[in-house]
Specification:
two-stranded antiparallel ribbon, 6 strands, single chain, two-stranded parallel sheet, 142 residues, 4 helices, elongated, alpha+beta
Length: 142
């Protein structure tokens, strides 16, 4: 029987390994932003004159405005991604997600307080993203 035994050592310094891990983490976080934004945008369907039921994702009543306000921003100092709708003066997207009271200006200019039932769109997008989450780091350090 012929056998060959070989030992090989590869010198890896901890600083090189840490740099590679940080770079791989940054790339994975950067790739997560467009993924989650796409999941969020696909949650919101377009319906012209219908309201969504409580517990379902909200409907967009115009083709561009609602979906285009879902953006992502990468924060390089913290290696963190912020994803979600642009918040204006009142937190309409947050109120849609969690439900709660909201003040609405009517066509006549009168301000009316109303209660909005929760219509989540971010939480289902995040749970959908969690299935793809490990794939972002797979084979990232070589």
């Amino acid at each position: 029987m012929f056998g060959l035994q070989m030992t090989m050592t590869v010198p890896v310094s901890p600083t090189v390994l840490i740099k590679k891990m940080n770079k791989a983490n940054e790339q994975a976080v950067r790739r997560s932003g467009p993924l989650v934004r796409g999941f969020m945008r696909r949650q919101i369907k377009f319906r012209k004159f219908k309201k969504s039921l409580p517990g379902q994702a909200p409907f967009a009543h115009s083709k561009g405005f609602g979906l285009k306000t879902i953006v992502y921003k990468y924060h390089p100092s913290a290696v963190r991604m912020t994803i979600g709708p642009i918040i204006r003066s009142n937190d309409v997207p947050g109120t849609l997600e969690r439900g709660g009271p909201i003040r609405i200006r009517t066509r006549k200019g009168k301000i009316v307080q109303s209660y909005v039932q929760p219509r989540p769109f971010a939480e289902p997008a995040i749970t959908q993203f969690k299935t793809k989450y490990p794939d972002l780091w797979r084979n990232s350090i070589s």
